[in-house]
Structures are given as C-alpha cells and as structure tokens.
Write a sequence for this structure.
C-alpha cells in the first residue's frame, strides 16, 4: 500500500516524486526503461542561443530520485485503474498496487496525417525519428522527408540537421477529411510564425518578427512564398505543394508532390517524384488521457491546449477525490511547464498551500518565456478550463 502512485516518470511525474518522497510513501511507474519521458530526445537552441539538452536534463531529474520512501518501477505499463472505494487500485504489467492518492502524468501522444503509403516500412512519426536519432543514436535513414509542418516537426527537423541526417523535403499532407487544418497552407504559415525565433537565418527571424507584429500583411507575405519552397537547414520547405503519396514496393522509395492553392486544393496534375528512404509523419501532439477515461473524469475540447482536456483546477486537482494530473495530459506545453505542474500537484497533496501559490507564479513565468509554444492562445485555454472548473463547483 502506497500513499501516492504516480503514473509517468517524465518531467511532470519525476518533479512531483522528488517533492512527495520527502513525506509520503510513493510509487513511480513508467513503461519506458528510463526516467525523463519525452524530455530525453529533445535537443535545440533556446532564445538566448543556449543548447537545450533534454538527455542531460533528464539525467539531472533522475539522479535526485533516491529515498527510502520512493519505489520506482520502470518498463511497467499501467493497464487499468479502479477506485472501488477509498483507494486507487492500479493494475500494471509488474503487478497490482493500491494508494490513497493518484497522480497521472502520462504526457502526450503524436497525431499523424492520413496519407497513401503510410504503412510502408521506413515511415515513422517525427517523435520516433527524434528518439532514434537523439536517444538510440541510430539514423532513421540516409535521405528523408517530413510530412506535416508544425512546431514539433520543425523542432525535430533542426535536430535531424544537427545530427547530419539529410531531410530533402518538408511539406504539407494532402487535403482530405482527416487532415483538415494541417493541410491548409495559410493556417500552417500563421502557426509557424510562433517559432520563427528558431529559424537558422537572421533575415527569416527578422522578417517573421515583422509579420507577427503586423498580422495584416501576412496574406500578402504568403503570396510571396516561392512555389519551389524555402530553404531551411538545406531542406526545401513547401507551403504550396502537398505530398499526395508515399511510394515503394517493400519499403519507402519516394514521395509524390503536387502543387496546391492557398486552401490546400490541388491545382494541377503535374507530379514531382522525390527519391527518399525514410518518411516522418507529423500532425502535432494531443494529451494522452485515455487512462483517465477509466475513471469518471469529465473532458472538454480546447484546441489551444491540443485536444480533449480532463477538467482540473490550477492546483492540478480533478473532480475525483485525491486524483491529480500534471504535465502534457493537461494541455500541450514544454517540459519546464510540465515540471512546475508536477511540483504544484505534489505541494497540493502535501497541503503546502504557500508553495502551491509560489510555484503557480513560477509556472506563469516559464509559460511566458517558453522557447516553444505548441499552440497560440495557451493562456486563454488555461483560463477557459479554470472558469469551467469554477462554474462546475458553484453548480
Ligand atoms: C513525440 C514527442 C516529442 C516531443 N518533442 C518535444 C520537443 O522537441 N520540445 C518540447 O518542448 N516538447 C516536446 N514534446 C512535449 C513534451 O511532451 C514535453 O516537453 C514534456 O516532456 C511533457 O512532460 P510530461 O511529464 O507531461 O510527459 P512525458 O514527458 O510525455 O512523460 C510521460 C511519461 O508517461 C509514461 N506513460 C504514459 N502512459 C503510461 C502507462 N499507461 N503506463 C506507464 N507509463 C506511462 C510515458 O512512458 C512517459 O515516460 C514532445 C512530446 C512528444 C509526445
């Protein structure tokens, strides 16, 4: 029997465990064989030109997790959660456990665009390419393509470039019933302005800063994007072409591109075939909240937080007694925000309310200074869920 079980040893779960283990008997569970979650694969330069090395940061998180109160079980998947009465019953691939409090920090999952040929060997998500390259140190292939242009795929393009892996093309997925927003060139262009500070060229940085300041000129700027694409880290980034298929007999051999209009509709039958031996798909990230579906948690769809969000308050409490959540499961943001959320949940469980208030302030600062913002209007999304919580309490 434990006081607290934490599901997920990413930045959120590991940060919470560090605080909770001082006073409570804690079980930290993760299905991966290492502590650090998705932080492990991250590698990029932040606003100040400093290299963000997630691998090293994950080691720092892991190094402090030693305490007689703390049990860690890695390579352990949680398969079921029940709360018949007062205690949580957690079924895992390493046995069954009980606790008074449950903190779920399961993170996010990748979405992938629908495209012909996506089941061929050599096709993977951008996140898989990130883990192969930065964690396993295995190149995903010799020359590849990324299908899907967003914050995550752009960050991983720069990581592949740092690892000297050639990415010939980054382009939009085809316009169809599944890929709606992701295949709309103007939408994608607007979202890219949020990460323009990560662009490798000073001119792109300056130009995009101007576009962000004067949004009225964005449609005009879009018109000037050349049909042959923009060069980013030696990759041709296409906002005016779509990949209509991934081709190959037994594995990926090429992709086929066609020209599109500003809404993503194909405007000519002319095809361009580009030889590649791996393809990365990216449709962004969404909270991995399926475990909470096993309990009676309410969800609400908030686009700026990445999808269906479990109802919770600013102290990371859900409507269910002693059930807490933290990190990307509450909305897609970077690792520093996830860590602060984990700390808040831990202090709330320990009823150290002064620390909760202080850490909430630190979280706001982390959010405002974040190098990567996955979505626009994150603060509005957070306010929306807070207001929803307040009204659910008063009803
Ligand atoms: C593929 C991918 C790539 C990303 N790349 C970047 C990036 O480059 N830059 C950036 O700022 N952010 C990136 N992110 C966002 C990233 O998730 C956050 O920065 C941060 O890692 C979130 O922390 P977290 O603790 O909420 O979740 P995570 O770091 O995702 O950790 C969640 C942990 O929960 C475990 N888990 C989930 N379900 C179960 C289960 N049923 N049983 C046991 N364990 C479980 C997972 O194994 C994982 O270790 C990425 C996210 C993903 C999914």
């Amino acid at each position: 029997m434990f006081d607290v079980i934490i599901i997920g040893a990413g930045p959120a779960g590991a940060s919470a465990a560090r605080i909770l283990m001082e006073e409570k008997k804690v079980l930290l569970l993760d299905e991966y064989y290492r502590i650090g979650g998705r932080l492990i694969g991250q590698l990029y330069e932040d606003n100040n030109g400093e290299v963000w090395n997630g691998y090293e940061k994950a080691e720092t998180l892991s190094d402090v997790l030693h305490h007689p109160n703390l049990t860690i079980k890695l390579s352990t998947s949680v398969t079921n959660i029940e709360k018949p009465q007062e205690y949580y019953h957690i079924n895992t691939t390493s046995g069954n456990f009980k606790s008074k409090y449950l903190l779920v920090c399961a993170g996010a999952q990748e979405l992938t665009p629908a495209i012909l040929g996506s089941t061929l060997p050599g096709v993977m998500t951008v996140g898989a390419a990130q883990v192969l390259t930065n964690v396993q140190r295995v190149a995903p292939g010799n020359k590849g393509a990324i299908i899907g242009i967003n914050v995550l795929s752009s960050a991983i393009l720069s990581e592949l470039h740092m690892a000297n892996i050639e990415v010939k093309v980054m382009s939009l997925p085809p316009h169809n019933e599944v890929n709606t927003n992701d295949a709309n060139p103007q939408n994608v262009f607007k979202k890219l302005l949020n990460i323009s500070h990560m662009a490798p060229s000073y001119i792109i940085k300056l130009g995009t800063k101007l576009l962000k300041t004067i949004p009225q000129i964005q449609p005009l700027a879009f018109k000037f994007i050349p049909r042959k694409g923009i060069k980013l880290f030696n990759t041709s980034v296409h906002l005016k072409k779509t990949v209509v298929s991934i081709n190959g007999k037994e594995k990926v051999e090429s992709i086929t591109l066609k020209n599109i209009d500003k809404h993503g509709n194909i405007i000519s039958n002319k095809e361009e075939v580009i030889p590649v031996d791996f393809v990365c798909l990216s449709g962004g990230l969404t909270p991995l909240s399926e475990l909470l579906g096993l309990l009676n948690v309410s969800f609400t769809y908030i686009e700026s937080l990445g999808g269906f969000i479990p109802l919770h308050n600013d102290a990371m409490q859900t409507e269910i007694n002693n059930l807490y959540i933290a990190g990307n499961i509450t909305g897609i943001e970077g690792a520093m925000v996830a860590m602060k959320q984990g700390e808040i949940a831990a202090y709330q469980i320990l009823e150290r309310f002064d620390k909760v208030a202080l850490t909430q302030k630190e979280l706001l600062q982390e959010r405002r200074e974040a190098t990567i913002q996955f979505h626009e209007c994150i603060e509005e999304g957070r306010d929306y869920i807070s207001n929803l919580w307040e009204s659910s309490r008063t009803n």
